Every structure is written in C-alpha cells, then in structure tokens.
Amino acid sequence: MSYQTILKSSLAIVFAITFFGSADAQNSLAIKGGKIIPVAGEAIENGTLLIRDGKIAAVGTDLDIPVDARIIDATGKVVMPGFVEAHSSEGLSQANETNPNVPYVSVMDGIDPMRPYFDSARRNGVTSVAVVPGNSTMIGGQAAVIKTGGDFVEYMVLKRDAGMKISLRPAGQTSRMGHLAALRKALGEAKRKIESDAKKESGKDEEKAEDKSKEGESKTAATPSKPKSETDSELTKALMKVVSGKLPVFIYCDKAMDVAYATQLINQYKMNAILVLGRDCHKAAKQVAASGLPVILDSQMVFWDKDPRTDEEKKIVVTESFRDQDVPFAFQVARSSNNTLGNNYLWYQAATAVKYGMPKDEALKALTLLPAEFLGVDQFVGSLEKGKDGDVIILTGDPLKNGTWVETTIVNGEVVYERDNDEKLELLLGKTDQK
Amino acid sequence: MKIKTPVLFTICLLTVTTVIAQDDAAVLYSAGTVYTMSGEPISPGQVLVENGKIKAVDSVIPAATRGDATLVELGEGSVLMPGLIDAYTQSGMGADSSDEVTKEITPNFRAARSIDWKSTDMKQRLHAGTTTMCVCPGTQNVVSGIASIVKTGGEQVVNDDYALVASICSDPTARNSSRQRPDSIYVRQPTNRMGVVWILRNSLSKVKQGKMESAPLAEALNGKRPFFIVSRVAHDLSTAATLAEEFDFQPILVGGHESYKITDLISARNYSVILGGTTTGSMFGPEQTELCWNQAGILDEAGITFCISGNNQLEQARFAHRFGLDANKALAAITTSPAQILGINERVGTIEIGKDADLIALQGDPLEFTTAIEWVMVDGKITEPKNTTRQAKGN
Questions:
Q1: What is the ipTM of this complex?
Q2: Second label for A12, Cα 20 to 30 Å away, from A70, A107, B81, B222?
Q3: For residue range B53-73, what is the model confidence (pLDDT) as tens digits?
C-alpha cells in the first residue's frame, strides 16, 4: 500500500464521516422557545418540538435535544401544525375535463408543482392540500392529498386515492333532470356490476375447490368476451370503488336544492361522502346537519342575497348559518383568477369566521385537524402529536392576527419556506430597494 | 269610520313625534376606545350626539354637558371611529348609467342625476362602514362628467357639483363598438391610448383658446374645480403629469396602482393620489398593472398625500397596514385624508365637536381581520340595523 493510497482512503473516511454526520443532523430538528399550539391539547408556553426522520418525535417543555439536531429558535413565536386545505383545484394545470364522465382520471397526472399556488400556499402556512378536480364536470376524476413542498407530485403525495369528485351542477345546456339521470345511470351500472360480480363470486366458491389453477385464465378471458368498449369498463371499474364506499366522494352542491339529491344519492349508493357546498347551500343548513356529513364551505362566506320577488336584500354569513345547526366545516379559498382581497388565503377565511362569532380555537381546528379528519389523513397531519408528520409552521405572533406572518414552513421535517428568503414577497411589498 | 279616523290620526301623530324625538334627542355613546382621528385615541371614551352632530367627545363627558342624554354602553373592548370616506367610487349609480356611449367628451353629465339611493351597492357600502362617498361617472369616456359627494345614509347629497372626471387609461378604447361593427352608429374614437390623450388635449386646448364652450372644463383648468384623472399604469400617470404641466392644472390622480413607481414625480408636483383598491388573489392589478401590495406604504414614505378607496375600505386599510403602512396612517387613509382630498374635512372625517355624527361602532381593534362592525351611523342616525354578528359561543 503506497502512501498515496493511504492518504486517499483516509480522506475518503473523513469525507464519509462528514457526509453521514451532516445527514444525521439533517434528520433531527428541534424547534424551541416558542408557544406551541398543538391543536390536539392545550397550548404549551416555551415549548420544544422535536422532529426526527420527518416525524414528530416529541412535544413538551423539558425535552433533551439530541446533540446533532438542527435547532430553530422560536422564542416569542408561535409554533403550530401546518394548515390542511380540504378542497382546491389550484394545483392543477387544468381543473376540469371536457368529457363530463371521467372517473378514471386522477389529479396525480395533472398537478403542476410549479404553479404559483404552491408558493402562496407555503407562504401562508398550508402544508397539505386535497387537490380535487373542478366543479364543472359531472364525475370529474380522483382527488389526492399532497404536501405543498416538493417538485414532483409522486414525492409529494400523502393520500393517493383521497376521493372521487362528483358535481351536481349541470354543465352547459344540460338540465338538472338530465344531469341527475346521467349520474344515476353511471352509478347504477357500477352498482349492478358489483352485484353481478358478487353472484359470480359466490358461484365460483363452489367451483374453487375443483379448479383453482384455471381461475387466472378465466379472469383474463372474461374481459374480451364482453362487447363493451374498454373505456366503458374502465369507467365502471373506477366507479365501483365509489359505490361500495371504499373510495370517498366529494359531492359538489351548487344550489341548496342539490343537497337533498346529494344525500339521496349517498344513501342509495352507500357512498362515503364529503359535501362541497356552494354559497347558496346555507339555505339547506338543517338538511346538511341532519345528514351528519363533513362539509367544505364555499370561498364566499359573506354575501348579499336578493329575494327574486320582493327584492329584499339580506346579508348572509354562511358560517353563522352552519354554526347555528352545529355543522362542523372546513374552509375553501377563492380561485386565483378572482380579483379578491383576502379570501384567497385559508387563514383569512378562518379570521372571517371568528369575526362572525366562531371561537378562535375552533377556527384553528377548522384549519388543521378537522380537514385532516375529513380527508382521512389525521393519523399523519393536522396536529402536533408524537408520530405524526413533521408539518409545522412558525408564526411571528398569534395566529389570525393582522401583523402575523408565517416565518418558516416545515414539511416532513424539512424547511420548505423561509420568510427571510422570500424574494417574491419582498417584491410585492416593495422592499427590494432597501436590500 | 267616524271613530276610526281620529284614532288613526293620533297613532300617526304619535309615530311621527317618536321618530323626530329619536332623531333629535341627545345620545351618549360610551365605548372602550374612541378613535377621534384628530389626536390620540381616547380610552375609555364617550361621544355625545345631538341633532345629527357631535356635541362633545371626551373620556368622561361632564354631567352639565350631558344633560338628560340617553346613555348607550357599547361594552368592553368596543371602538368608535369616524365613518369611512371613499373619495372615488361608482357605487350607488343606477344600472347602465355610469358610462356614455355616444360621445367621448361629456363634461356636463352629473353623477348625482343617476344615483339610486335604494341600490344594493349603496346599502352594502353603508354596511361596510362607508358613510360618505364621492360618486364618479364611469371611465369609458375621455371626459366623463361631474362627480358628486353623497352620504350613504339618509339620501343626502353633500356636493352635487364637485370634481370633473377624465380618463387617461385604456378604458375609453373599450367602448369602441366600431371595432366589431364598422356599420355601427357608435363609430367613435378613441381606439387606442394615443387617441385618448389626443382627444383630451384637443378639448383642453380648444377650451383654453375659447374655441369650445365648456364651463366644467374651463373651471378644471383654472383650478376652480378639482380635476380627477383616472390613471393606473405608470406611463399613463406620467402622461397625466405631462398634460397637467402643459395646461397648468393640478390633477388628483385616481387609481394610481403604479404610482409607487413614480413617487419622485408625484411628490415633486405635489399631486394627491386616490388609491384604487388592491387585490391579493390575482397576478396583476386592474388594467394589468404590476401587482404591488404595499402601494400605500410606499406613497406614505415618499410623503405623498393619498387615500384608500375601494369597495371594502376597512379591509383595504387592514391589508395596507399588513403590507407596510403604519396603523394610524391606515386609518387616516380611509377617514381624514379622503376628507381632506375632497375638501369636506370641515364636516366629516374626524370625531370632533360640531362635525357630522357619522360613526362606526366596532367590536375591537378596527385593523384586525377578526373585528366586525357593530353598527354604522350617518348624521346621528343608526341607519342600518345592527349587523347580524353574534357573540361567540363559549370562549
């Protein structure tokens, strides 16, 4: 062994140690000194949050911080779980399919992580979002819950089959009668297919003992024997999961009248549903309450309604209508194409709800744990609890206060946003000259 | 019949007297904090309202001044502040009456003639806290007419013969129907920005040379009438400045979404700016102006006189504060500064003795997003019933 080889190998060892050492440090993150609002449980003053390997390892006051952990000092700041947005089409390059019946498509094929939406989401504390097809397609396709940090959707995904989007709003010239008939036809076909499959299954059980090896062949042989086109069978297959309740549905109700049909369809086809309600649906608050289904509100929560006959105008506060009926709800934000002030932010929606009487802790829950429960991802996100994903936001002050900004956004234990390095925000605030 | 008539008459009489009594009777409002906007906030504070005017304002109004005024306790944490003033709006104009199609120059049209006091937007503005607003004709004419200052409650015109409004922006080109239909009777200019400026310059020089009679234009040129110029992008604002120098008038810039880019020019010429509302959702401002959230803060730092207009002024002020404008200045931008720009600061804009009793009562800090407006008062009258806000359950 020459001198050079020894040098090389020792260098390699040094390199390896440095490399693995730093990688280890990357895996532990401690946020200390701040006020922790875990959402599940009481707030902790001067608390410490430990994240290891992307998961929350501990939340408390007197925690032993590992020597290799990266430490973020959050003194004077507020630490809380990242917000969960329950319904958005903004991550899609195109929200609606032109074909009205496309249960087999998935948002996983259409999410563009480079869209400005994701920038804005991280800046405003959103760490998980349910990307759902738009409201203009009858059966719009499959939704997914993704994290807002990342540049390829496969690495961002939290729940791939989050649900099917069904809209009760007829598109174009279709009447509501025609729309519902088409919807029932599609769902009915799926239901019949399940029933016929079940019959076949029970028939097979008897044959099974005799002919186990041939089963695989018969399955593949069965498909071409049917005269139906490939898309037809794809369509039914995708809907079968919905009709059996295995895949949740996001049902969009445009008008209050749609709520009754939605609940009817849900019961008839035993669907596992989340109601996505247009602003008019405040009129059906009682029906919604009776259904006991999770609710996602329209982005327009305060508006003026005019009686078509008497011209009487009334200021409607949607959150009040639902709170009066004790309906728990999550928020939705306005589309980016709208010229809106404020309601394109999830936190602003919560602030508006508080303005109209919702207690603050309830509003914070409606930003985090509640939508996580609705979406079936509450074992991973929505609160700061041991074992959950390290999705944390550090705020400059109390949440929902005017001067409060998101300082740091952390997804899976990794910092994905820092206000100090947010050049776009500096541009928008006209601060570039000072730097 | 014989018995019923006098009974009815008495009932009518009673109703009338009670209404008058309510209007005139002195009421003492006691709030957690009174933002007078003429000095430091008074905490706690009291405001005495009589005959639609502010009779007294102090932390405790002495019994002698107070007399037999009814006391209204607004509760802990409550806030009283002056009614908001919007220096530029088209709210309250009846449908289809803000823009004229047949002519490019209509300096004699008056906004006051088409105000619909019962319109939804008037009511909405009142609910959102705006008590005084300057209603302007639309922007699709090069010179669109005369703005009128009105109260949103009580169907009251403050000044129906106020500023002349002209557009130096792309809006007038939008009404050119001849683009679509060459045979249209509405074949009119301009079709581009150059045309807009040419038509304005042409009319102004004709008026100056005495070749065209137009009292409003002449008054706007000689400084007897305020001259609103609607411009949003920086190069239009610069054009407005060029014309102003050429014809020697002092414009009030309206819109001004990119005025933050040319603050040196604006502050050197001492122009006032009525900022149009900002948005946070879209990528651009109106007319594709470059989006800057801190327009107000930048104008303020440059020492420019400005106010904030827009459909929800309180929300606009809240965001202006969030994006960098000082809290007091954010409140001034929707009360005292628009009053000053409109020249009505003797009557409205602050809570001071002798001023109109235009007030808003809030449940907390006016600049917090979580604060609701409790009621809005115009000339001593709580015109709109209480908002439907409820107390938080629990908490």
A1: 0.89
A2: A70
A3: 999 999 999 999 999 999 999
